[in-house]
Amino acid sequence: MTASDGGRAGGVPAPFLRKLTTVRIVSTASGQEPGPPADPLPRHPLRGCRLVVDIGSATGMHRSLVLSGPSGAAAAQPPGFLDEHLCVNPGNRRTAACCAEYADVLAHGAPLPDAQAGPRVRHLLDRYPGCLLAAVPRWEGGCLVGCRGGGLIRALPGGRTGAPLTGRQCSGLTSALHAWLVAGHRLTAVRTAAISCPYRPWLTAVLDLRFTAG
Questions:
Q1: What global pTM score does this model have?
Q2: Three-state secondary structure readout of 20-74
Q3: DSSP code, position 132
Q4: Distance between CA 37 and CA 204 in Å, rounded?
Q5: Which of 37, 28, 39, 35 lies closest to 61 in space, CA to CA?
Q6: Using an 8 Å Cβ cutoff, are 142 and 165 in contact?
Q7: Which pLDDT tens digit goes with each residue over 17-49?
Q8: What does each C-alpha distance from 9 to 65, 78, 174 come to in angstroms?
């Protein structure tokens, strides 16, 4: 269900193709600290961009552009690794009923208490065997992201209790992590993430990413 480097997401019925999310990893810069993008990209390459996600890892800072629509809509974007996948909010009954079984990423829009978020992530992975990642925002702050085959990322705001991520921030982070995996990286390597709106960089969410196996 996932396509990369300009391909089309196979297995997704044609009526759902407009719902695809495109993530383009456009740059790698070692030694940067997480936060609002230090070198904002010009307006033209950000056309159609919903979020910028900077993932800090053991190998440096990797910037991803999260765009709505299939890769054709992202034709004017700068070069880089391209991942195209279907991201669905399982909390939206109408969308979930028609699309969840085809989803590569499931990201809840509404936060849950931590005691409920973990079981919900596991339920989504069990219920929809085609998805690679499932995520739920936490009332206590940040979100939980579960990976098929084991592994959980606890994304915490600065390592402290804080505001839960919005549905858009949660889905954007999870889509960027999906692209990270498809590009051949490991979730064990991620350390931080900064999620920002390209035209509102002051609304950046800065997170510590803590991976646990299991």
A1: 0.83
A2: EEEEEEEEEECCCCCCCCCCCCCCHHHCCEEEEEEEEECCEEEEEEEEECCHHHH
A3: S
A4: 9
A5: 28
A6: yes
A7: 566 788 888 765 544 444 444 454 444 445 667
A8: 18, 20, 17
